[in-house]
């Protein structure tokens, strides 16, 4: 388990939040639900993504844009379009009315010259784990079309053109594939500034330490045991980890444990504080509560009550 896999594992596509459409100008689709993450990929044509409070972003064929909420955004044929905005959200594709084959308020033409084919997937991305990923992203990130065809987009184009059993599951998984590939390409872009944990994963020593922490967060890790498993001295590990990640190994471990604990407190409402403490590596619930309050500013019980109101 690596840091990126851990952070993105709670981000999954869901059928009612998926939509596709063939559009003929003029158009203006206003995505009103303010999803934490929305993936927009253009199979054909071109248009503009206009995020609330941010400059417009052009979107051309075979390009992908990810919009981070909670701000809403509009997809238009051109900036200043004369089209009246159509409100779109989770009800633009309702399963009881045919799932992704039925888009309320979207123009469904037969395609052809001058049309634009848009694929949209909104992600709920709830919880503290997902927040760590969202915090590393700008409001809008884009990945330009490459020189070679994107197999994910090819599969999406083929799947939306048919109506077959299991189509929704296929579309959801393809959209998840597109999201992961887009984020990886954006983090690795030339001249980019990826989050520290992303770049640190490439280091043979620090990357291995991060994988160990994420694979076994409840293990009784010390700098010495991590150093032994990565094949370096304690001082070498501590220095390189702090330089690349921005904090010492055990500080990172504690922060990650508290992130896991925050989600567990909400997801496992019948679990005791002692149960949660043991799950994230604390034999003493009082020590766990003290660490949680030090990092979160509130104790675990208060956090759970506030999150479940």
UniProtKB/TrEMBL annotation:
Keyword set includes Transcription regulation: yes
Alphabetical list of PROSITE patterns matching this protein: HTH_ARAC_FAMILY_1 (PS00041), HTH_ARAC_FAMILY_2 (PS01124)
Name of a matching Pfam family: HTH_18
Keyword DNA damage among record annotations: no
SUPFAM superfamilies cross-referenced by the UniProt entry: Homeodomain-like
InterPro entries documented for this protein: AraC_lig, AraC_XylS_family_regulators, Homeodomain-like_sf, HTH_AraC, HTH_AraC-typ_CS, Tscrpt_reg_AraC-type_HTH
Gene3D superfamilies recorded: Homeodomain-like (1.10.10.60)
Cleavable signal peptide: none
Domain HTH araC/xylS-type: 207-306
Keyword annotations: DNA-binding, Transcription, Transcription regulation
GO molecular function, one term: DNA-binding transcription factor activity
Protein name: Cupin
